[in-house]
Amino acid sequence: MSDKASQKSLSELIPTSYGQEDLTICKAFKYVESAQPPKSRTGQRLVVCHRDELKPGDRRIVDDGKQGIGVFNIGGQFYAIKNVCPHEGAQLCRGTIHATHAPSNVTEFIPALHGRVLRCPWHGWEFDIPSGKGLYDRHGRVAVYKVEIDESGNVVIVL
Ligand code: FES
Fold it and tell me: Could you report the per-residue pLDDT of 57-100, keeping only the tens digit for each?
């Protein structure tokens, strides 16, 4: 270590930002904050179950004839997300659910997105369930689908 570096206090040596990586994560969070609810693409309807069978914190993976769609009850709201991780194709909806922390200075910890972050079971990439946005970069995301409750109280994915 040079003489100059050894004379710095500890707080001077701690960086205040993650630099370029910080910018990328900020863009991911901005997308999450501004995301609009998903729209129907084909109008095809997939009945999942009665709403009473899917309590807050529960999930169900339904067969859509492809890789499946995960339906999650987060605080009484229902969300549907494709069951495929864009990294290497793991069954994303079998991952664990967490919070994360918002972009901040390195000495801060700001909890965010409580109970709505889905962590891929293979390598841990994280996604915001309602928007499908990957929280690791500015572009990555997973398809999300419109969810309705029908007149009988069934949770329905509208493709
Ligand atoms: S397959 Fe999901 S993080 Fe690698």
Answer: 999 999 999 999 999 999 999 999 999 999 999 999 999 999 99
CATH of the domain at 140: 2.102.10.10
**Any domain includes 74:** yes
Residue 4 lies inside a defined structural domain of this protein: no
pLDDT digits (tens, 9 = 90+) for 35-60: 999 999 999 999 999 999 999 999 99
117 belongs to a structural domain: yes
Ligand 1: residue of 82, 84, 87, 142 to mutate (most ligand atoms within 8 A of CB) is 87
For residue 26, which amino acid is it?
Answer: C
Q: Collapse the DSSP code of 5 into the 3-class scheme (helix H, G, I; strand E, B; otherwise coil) and give the result.
A: helix
Assess if residue 142 is contained within a domain: yes
Question: Rounded distance, CA 28 to CA 24, Å?
Answer: 7
